[in-house]
Amino acid sequence: MTLGADDLVLCSGTFAFGTSFADRVHAASAAGFDGLSLWVQDYRGGRADGLSDADMRAMLDDHGLAVAEIDAAWWWLPGGPDTVPGELAGAFAYGEADVFAIADATGARSLNAVDVFGGEWSVDQAADHFAGLCDRAAEHGLLVHIEFLPWSRIPDLATAWAIANAADRPNGGVLVDSWHWTRSESDPDLLRTLPAGKVLGIQLNDGPAAAEPDLIDATMHHRVLPGAGEFDLPGLIDALRATGTQAPWGVEVFSDDLHTRAATDVAALAADALRKVVAG
Predict the structure, then answer these.
(1) Is 221 helix (H, G, I), strand (E, B) or coil?
(2) What's the Rg (C-alpha) of the chain?
(3) Is there a domain that residue 3 lies in?
(4) For the whole model, what pTM was predicted?
(5) Model confidence pLDDT, tens digit, residues 214-263
Protein backbone atom coordinates (compact mmCIF):
# COMPACT_ATOMS: atom_id res chain seq x y z
CA MET A 1 0.00 0.00 0.00
CA THR A 2 1.37 3.41 -1.00
CA LEU A 3 0.55 6.42 1.16
CA GLY A 4 -0.09 9.75 -0.55
CA ALA A 5 -1.62 13.19 -0.22
CA ASP A 6 -5.17 11.89 0.27
CA ASP A 7 -4.23 9.59 3.15
CA LEU A 8 -4.32 10.07 6.92
CA VAL A 9 -1.69 8.72 9.34
CA LEU A 10 -1.99 8.21 13.08
CA CYS A 11 1.43 8.88 14.62
CA SER A 12 2.75 6.73 17.43
CA GLY A 13 3.02 9.40 20.13
CA THR A 14 -0.71 10.09 20.03
CA PHE A 15 -1.21 6.80 21.87
CA ALA A 16 -0.11 6.26 25.46
CA PHE A 17 3.36 4.81 25.82
CA GLY A 18 3.13 1.04 26.01
CA THR A 19 -0.02 0.72 23.89
CA SER A 20 0.31 -2.66 22.19
CA PHE A 21 0.96 -3.09 18.50
CA ALA A 22 -2.36 -4.90 18.10
CA ASP A 23 -4.30 -2.15 19.89
CA ARG A 24 -2.66 0.51 17.73
CA VAL A 25 -3.60 -1.31 14.56
CA HIS A 26 -7.19 -2.02 15.61
CA ALA A 27 -7.78 1.55 16.81
CA ALA A 28 -6.24 3.21 13.73
CA SER A 29 -8.24 1.01 11.39
CA ALA A 30 -11.52 1.54 13.26
CA ALA A 31 -11.06 5.31 13.03
CA GLY A 32 -10.48 5.18 9.27
CA PHE A 33 -6.78 5.95 9.13
CA ASP A 34 -4.77 4.75 6.15
CA GLY A 35 -1.49 4.37 7.99
CA LEU A 36 0.34 4.70 11.28
CA SER A 37 3.85 5.53 12.33
CA LEU A 38 5.95 3.29 14.53
CA TRP A 39 8.68 3.71 17.08
CA VAL A 40 11.12 0.88 17.47
CA GLN A 41 9.54 0.17 20.87
CA ASP A 42 6.15 -0.38 19.20
CA TYR A 43 7.59 -3.07 16.97
CA ARG A 44 9.53 -4.66 19.80
CA GLY A 45 6.38 -4.65 21.91
CA GLY A 46 4.62 -6.65 19.21
CA ARG A 47 7.42 -9.18 19.14
CA ALA A 48 7.35 -9.41 22.96
CA ASP A 49 3.61 -10.14 22.73
CA GLY A 50 4.40 -13.16 20.57
CA LEU A 51 3.81 -11.68 17.11
CA SER A 52 6.19 -12.65 14.33
CA ASP A 53 7.14 -10.28 11.52
CA ALA A 54 4.68 -12.14 9.30
CA ASP A 55 1.95 -11.77 11.93
CA MET A 56 2.45 -8.02 12.15
CA ARG A 57 2.56 -7.56 8.40
CA ALA A 58 -0.61 -9.64 8.02
CA MET A 59 -2.33 -7.64 10.76
CA LEU A 60 -1.50 -4.41 8.97
CA ASP A 61 -2.67 -5.78 5.62
CA ASP A 62 -5.89 -7.19 7.07
CA HIS A 63 -6.74 -3.77 8.51
CA GLY A 64 -5.82 -1.85 5.35
CA LEU A 65 -2.97 0.00 7.02
CA ALA A 66 0.50 0.97 5.84
CA VAL A 67 3.41 2.00 8.04
CA ALA A 68 4.36 5.62 7.37
CA GLU A 69 7.55 6.64 9.13
CA ILE A 70 9.80 4.74 11.50
CA ASP A 71 10.80 7.19 14.25
CA ALA A 72 13.65 8.02 14.65
CA ALA A 73 17.20 7.95 13.31
CA TRP A 74 19.40 9.45 16.05
CA TRP A 75 22.87 8.24 14.99
CA TRP A 76 23.34 9.91 11.63
CA LEU A 77 25.05 13.21 12.50
CA PRO A 78 28.86 13.49 12.79
CA GLY A 79 30.54 13.21 16.17
CA GLY A 80 27.72 11.47 18.00
CA PRO A 81 28.15 8.52 20.37
CA ASP A 82 27.79 4.93 19.24
CA THR A 83 25.15 4.35 21.91
CA VAL A 84 22.79 6.74 23.67
CA PRO A 85 23.91 7.60 27.20
CA GLY A 86 21.95 8.44 30.34
CA GLU A 87 18.19 8.67 30.67
CA LEU A 88 17.60 8.43 26.91
CA ALA A 89 19.33 5.05 26.67
CA GLY A 90 16.13 3.01 26.89
CA ALA A 91 14.24 5.06 24.33
CA PHE A 92 17.06 4.92 21.80
CA ALA A 93 18.48 1.45 22.44
CA TYR A 94 18.76 0.54 18.76
CA GLY A 95 20.84 1.34 15.72
CA GLU A 96 20.62 1.64 11.97
CA ALA A 97 20.57 -2.10 11.26
CA ASP A 98 17.66 -2.54 13.67
CA VAL A 99 15.64 0.21 12.01
CA PHE A 100 16.24 -1.08 8.50
CA ALA A 101 15.21 -4.58 9.56
CA ILE A 102 11.96 -3.22 11.06
CA ALA A 103 11.31 -1.17 7.93
CA ASP A 104 11.80 -4.26 5.77
CA ALA A 105 9.53 -6.33 8.01
CA THR A 106 6.68 -3.79 8.05
CA GLY A 107 7.02 -2.27 4.58
CA ALA A 108 7.58 1.22 6.00
CA ARG A 109 7.47 4.26 3.74
CA SER A 110 10.06 6.51 5.41
CA LEU A 111 12.58 7.11 8.19
CA ASN A 112 12.53 10.20 10.39
CA ALA A 113 15.93 11.76 11.18
CA VAL A 114 16.44 14.07 14.17
CA ASP A 115 19.29 15.77 16.03
CA VAL A 116 19.54 14.33 19.54
CA PHE A 117 23.06 15.27 20.66
CA GLY A 118 23.95 18.58 19.02
CA GLY A 119 27.69 18.86 18.46
CA GLU A 120 30.10 21.08 16.54
CA TRP A 121 29.31 19.94 13.00
CA SER A 122 28.64 22.29 10.11
CA VAL A 123 25.70 22.20 7.73
CA ASP A 124 27.99 20.79 5.03
CA GLN A 125 29.17 18.00 7.34
CA ALA A 126 25.58 17.22 8.33
CA ALA A 127 24.62 17.15 4.64
CA ASP A 128 27.37 14.63 3.88
CA HIS A 129 26.13 12.36 6.65
CA PHE A 130 22.50 12.82 5.62
CA ALA A 131 23.40 11.88 2.05
CA GLY A 132 24.98 8.66 3.33
CA LEU A 133 21.91 7.85 5.41
CA CYS A 134 19.67 8.44 2.40
CA ASP A 135 21.82 6.20 0.20
CA ARG A 136 21.73 3.35 2.71
CA ALA A 137 18.00 3.83 3.28
CA ALA A 138 17.35 3.73 -0.47
CA GLU A 139 18.56 0.13 -0.45
CA HIS A 140 15.49 -0.59 1.69
CA GLY A 141 13.08 1.49 -0.39
CA LEU A 142 12.86 4.23 2.25
CA LEU A 143 12.41 7.96 2.03
CA VAL A 144 14.27 9.94 4.72
CA HIS A 145 13.07 13.25 6.19
CA ILE A 146 14.70 15.59 8.69
CA GLU A 147 12.44 16.77 11.51
CA PHE A 148 13.60 20.08 12.99
CA LEU A 149 13.32 20.59 16.78
CA PRO A 150 13.50 24.17 18.17
CA TRP A 151 15.95 23.27 20.99
CA SER A 152 18.34 21.31 18.73
CA ARG A 153 21.10 22.25 16.29
CA ILE A 154 18.49 21.74 13.56
CA PRO A 155 16.05 24.23 15.11
CA ASP A 156 13.97 25.33 12.14
CA LEU A 157 12.92 24.68 8.57
CA ALA A 158 15.74 26.79 7.14
CA THR A 159 18.41 24.59 8.75
CA ALA A 160 16.68 21.31 7.93
CA TRP A 161 16.22 22.37 4.33
CA ALA A 162 19.82 23.59 4.03
CA ILE A 163 21.01 20.11 5.04
CA ALA A 164 18.57 18.20 2.84
CA ASN A 165 19.16 20.49 -0.13
CA ALA A 166 22.94 20.23 0.12
CA ALA A 167 22.70 16.43 0.42
CA ASP A 168 20.74 16.43 -2.83
CA ARG A 169 19.34 12.91 -2.62
CA PRO A 170 16.15 11.91 -4.47
CA ASN A 171 14.79 10.14 -1.39
CA GLY A 172 15.75 12.91 1.07
CA GLY A 173 13.72 15.86 2.34
CA VAL A 174 12.11 17.37 5.42
CA LEU A 175 9.25 16.66 7.79
CA VAL A 176 7.08 19.50 9.09
CA ASP A 177 5.51 19.08 12.53
CA SER A 178 3.13 21.96 13.32
CA TRP A 179 4.27 22.18 16.96
CA HIS A 180 7.94 22.56 16.02
CA TRP A 181 6.97 24.76 13.09
CA THR A 182 5.12 27.19 15.34
CA ARG A 183 7.64 27.24 18.18
CA SER A 184 10.57 27.71 15.77
CA GLU A 185 8.81 30.61 14.01
CA SER A 186 9.82 29.11 10.68
CA ASP A 187 9.24 31.05 7.49
CA PRO A 188 6.09 30.15 5.50
CA ASP A 189 7.51 31.91 2.44
CA LEU A 190 10.51 29.57 2.53
CA LEU A 191 8.21 26.58 2.87
CA ARG A 192 6.27 27.63 -0.21
CA THR A 193 9.47 27.70 -2.28
CA LEU A 194 10.50 24.13 -1.50
CA PRO A 195 10.57 21.93 -4.60
CA ALA A 196 7.78 19.45 -5.14
CA GLY A 197 8.54 16.20 -3.42
CA LYS A 198 10.81 17.61 -0.73
CA VAL A 199 8.24 17.85 2.06
CA LEU A 200 8.16 14.13 2.76
CA GLY A 201 6.37 14.07 6.12
CA ILE A 202 3.65 16.06 7.90
CA GLN A 203 2.54 15.89 11.54
CA LEU A 204 -0.29 18.13 12.73
CA ASN A 205 -1.16 19.11 16.30
CA ASP A 206 -2.00 22.30 18.15
CA GLY A 207 -1.28 24.41 21.19
CA PRO A 208 -1.39 27.93 22.65
CA ALA A 209 -0.11 30.90 20.66
CA ALA A 210 2.38 31.88 23.36
CA ALA A 211 5.39 29.63 23.80
CA GLU A 212 5.58 27.59 26.98
CA PRO A 213 8.46 28.13 29.47
CA ASP A 214 9.66 24.53 29.02
CA LEU A 215 9.39 23.56 25.37
CA ILE A 216 10.43 19.94 25.80
CA ASP A 217 7.92 19.32 28.59
CA ALA A 218 5.18 21.03 26.59
CA THR A 219 5.83 19.13 23.37
CA MET A 220 5.95 15.77 25.14
CA HIS A 221 2.97 16.23 27.48
CA HIS A 222 0.68 19.13 26.58
CA ARG A 223 -0.08 19.22 22.87
CA VAL A 224 -3.73 19.36 21.88
CA LEU A 225 -5.64 17.99 18.93
CA PRO A 226 -5.52 19.95 15.66
CA GLY A 227 -8.09 22.75 15.75
CA ALA A 228 -8.31 22.79 19.55
CA GLY A 229 -5.54 25.36 20.05
CA GLU A 230 -4.30 28.63 18.60
CA PHE A 231 -1.75 27.59 15.98
CA ASP A 232 -2.23 28.96 12.46
CA LEU A 233 -2.93 25.54 11.00
CA PRO A 234 -4.87 26.90 7.99
CA GLY A 235 -1.86 29.02 7.03
CA LEU A 236 0.54 26.11 7.45
CA ILE A 237 -1.67 23.72 5.50
CA ASP A 238 -1.99 26.28 2.69
CA ALA A 239 1.81 26.65 2.55
CA LEU A 240 2.28 22.88 2.57
CA ARG A 241 -0.14 22.44 -0.31
CA ALA A 242 1.67 25.17 -2.24
CA THR A 243 4.76 22.94 -2.30
CA GLY A 244 2.89 20.20 -4.14
CA THR A 245 3.75 17.72 -1.40
CA GLN A 246 2.39 14.22 -1.78
CA ALA A 247 3.06 13.34 1.86
CA PRO A 248 0.16 11.87 3.85
CA TRP A 249 -1.39 13.98 6.60
CA GLY A 250 -0.24 12.79 10.01
CA VAL A 251 -1.54 13.65 13.46
CA GLU A 252 0.89 13.52 16.39
CA VAL A 253 -0.45 14.69 19.76
CA PHE A 254 1.65 13.93 22.81
CA SER A 255 -0.92 14.61 25.50
CA ASP A 256 -1.16 13.47 29.10
CA ASP A 257 -4.93 13.85 28.79
CA LEU A 258 -5.24 11.71 25.67
CA HIS A 259 -2.92 9.13 27.14
CA THR A 260 -5.44 8.36 29.89
CA ARG A 261 -8.04 7.28 27.32
CA ALA A 262 -8.67 4.01 25.51
CA ALA A 263 -6.79 3.60 22.23
CA THR A 264 -10.02 3.43 20.21
CA ASP A 265 -11.24 6.71 21.70
CA VAL A 266 -7.91 8.40 21.06
CA ALA A 267 -7.87 7.30 17.43
CA ALA A 268 -11.46 8.43 16.85
CA LEU A 269 -10.81 11.88 18.34
CA ALA A 270 -7.59 12.28 16.36
CA ALA A 271 -9.21 11.23 13.09
CA ASP A 272 -12.12 13.63 13.52
CA ALA A 273 -9.82 16.55 14.36
CA LEU A 274 -7.40 15.80 11.51
CA ARG A 275 -10.14 15.50 8.92
CA LYS A 276 -11.65 18.84 9.96
CA VAL A 277 -8.42 20.85 9.72
CA VAL A 278 -7.29 19.23 6.47
CA ALA A 279 -10.70 19.86 4.91
CA GLY A 280 -10.35 23.51 5.86
Answers:
(1) helix
(2) 17
(3) no
(4) 0.96
(5) 999 999 999 999 999 999 999 999 999 999 999 999 999 999 999 999 99
